[in-house]
Design brief:
Shape: globular
Radius of gyration: 12 Å
Strand content: under 5%
Order of helices and strands: HHH
Number of helices: 3
Number of strands: 0
Structural class: mainly alpha
Length: about 70
């Protein structure tokens, strides 16, 4: 919701907190989806190097586990 309203810094902070929780339980589909969303946020913030990093992290997980993001 923060992302959709253009509050990118807040969305990134929320995403990083969520990532810590999700990684703790090793729920890979959610990690991949969150990485992709973080890539979108960094892209909006014109931090393209970080955007690519998170897109590739998400892609690596989806390929490894044969997942499909919605």
């Amino acid at each position: 919701l923060q992302y959709q309203k253009g509050f990118f810094a807040e969305a990134l902070s929320t995403s990083l907190n969520a990532l810590q929780l999700i990684e703790k339980y090793e729920y890979q589909p959610q990690v991949a989806e969150l990485y992709h969303m973080m890539g979108d946020i960094y892209n909006e913030l014109a931090q393209y190097d970080l955007a690519l990093r998170y897109y590739f992290l998400g892609l690596k997980i989806t390929e490894k586990f044969g997942l499909r993001l919605q």
